[in-house]
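Subject line: Sequence and fold of a protein, written as structure tokens
Area: Proteins and the way their chains fold up in space.
Start of record: The labelled sequence and token lines come straight after this line.
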Amino acid sequence: MAGVTMWSAILCSALIFCFDCSEARTFGIDYENDTFVLDGKPFRYVSGSIHYSRVPYQYWMDRLTKMFAAGLNAIQVYIPWNIHEPFQGQYDFSGQQDVVTFLKLAHSIGLYVILRPGPYICAEWEFGGFPAWLLKGNSDIRLRSSDPRYIKAVDQWFDVLLSEIAPLLYVNGGPIISVQVENEYGSYFACDYDYLRFLRQKMIDILGNDVVLFTTDGDGIGYLRCGTLQGLYTTVDFGITYNPAQNFNVQRVWEPKGPLVNSEFYTGWLDHWGESHSHTDAAAFAKSLDLLLAYGANVNMYMFEGGTNFGFWNGAEYPPFKAIPTSYDYDAPLSEAGDITEKYVAIRQVISKYYPPPPIPIPPSTPKFAYGKITMNLVATIPDYLEKYTPGGPIKSKYPINMEEIDHYYGFVMYRHILKDNVSWPTTLDIMGVRDRGYVMINQIPFGIIERDKNTSVNITGVIGDYLDVLVENQARINYGNNINDNRKGLITNVTHNGDPLTDWLIYPLLENITLVQPFSLKHSYPKQNGHLSTPALYAGQLVVPMEAAHPMDTYFDMSLWTKGQIWMNNFNLGRYWPAAGPQIRLYVPKPVLKQGENTVIMLELESSPCIQDGNCFVTFMDQPLINGTVHPFLGHRHGKLGHHGYLP
């Protein structure tokens, strides 16, 4: 982190702050002159979005410094509720969740903050930022509405959160100049004005009357009709435009006077597994930004730094169900790894036409290193270690239970049924309620893949006493749209065989961090093979980082030989890989995850191991990303019913 420290020192020496000013600090709106006003003077922000939850906290200063060096004077920040209250009443504002420190870092650099605390954030983030425990015992809860169960949870959460951020308001000496109420609410079916009034009043009660509260919606009349209220300043969002007046016409319907604001000026777009990587031309974006600034608009660029969906934090869209990859690069001006791009340079040049250049040069990109190939060794199949992965033991139930009801919100769950009858001839097993992808096995032999809204049945054979296992992956909760209320995971309906529901199940909620199970040196049964499928299994390897001052460095896992699964490095969950679907082939490994000497890599391969197929049991560490690889939508979602002999054709 020496480079970050150096650039921070240069930056701090170039800035002078007033943290304890005798004069009152104010931020508001001058409607007559169509502008924001900061301490009595006209003010316009040129901002960029960054998600502290998607950037390793050790790199927060690096990314914020680069944003300041681009010419920005503000950042826009979402707060995901689910990372701060993972279980009801249990709050976490430490380490990666230390949003207060993140905002103070922005303040120390000289960046103002536009805060978007939700409670719903979308952001292509798991469940749009909602904690999954909201669904426990509340299968019919109506989120983003006046449903008393939802309001009670938000009320308690905002008591905690808003009290944390109130001291950081601009009027209190901090960097926060405005706070968003809800998030693109006009795109949601509920249209519940009482809910918006509750949020507005809650924020006023804790933050006071001196903070600018605003809403954001798309630039269409239909979006704003249900998206805002009197007393909330209405803003819009849209991408590249060559006619700003047309885009802002909708804002002017609701706000005839006041500053023009594009709260999400899209620098790129999101990706989905099985679809091509999104790209927005740098020159076209810079030209559109120039037009917006010339028009006098306040602009927030979404995203300026995309970051990474580490662990299980990616979101999904529906319908149809499409999960977001681990990379949230977004084709942003700063890459997933915080590297300077052509788009960054073009944006800096445009901003310099309207404002003096920043007092620091462009910081360098973080160095990368190709550590090369390491061998991966089989540890065990998931069925081998099933008891160890569920230290609390299995849950016994007559019928399958969804994950939320057993307080298991992310990752994987195994459903086991012991066959009570002989199944000599392949017959149909139906699992209509799989959420989201399931691996069906009989005594560890894979019989097929079931998938939400696609293939939900396989043919099976077996004898009395055989283990019928269904390993279910929660691929992500829906983060956007009217279907966020239908976000239960695991098996949410009965499993039927020849039309009859199967009863008596053992349910194994697998540890979210299965790498905590020790030892990993024990090898059990070899994965069974059936067609292209192999038993889900764990593989382990060691990356040796040189004992030199320059190391460790950022690097990338190349997963091109593997199919689909999850990766942990030194017990840190780097995220999901799925090169069989694309477009992401390599996973970002940030320097703070690594250490000099031995680093332990654990992989959970769910579908088809190259160790079995062709003996290529290794991964390679590269110094370049690959998030725009070839996509294989049918291969990525492959499935099939078993033939008469129990093998995929």
Remarks:
- Residues 392-510 form a domain with the Jelly Rolls fold (CATH 2.60.120.260).
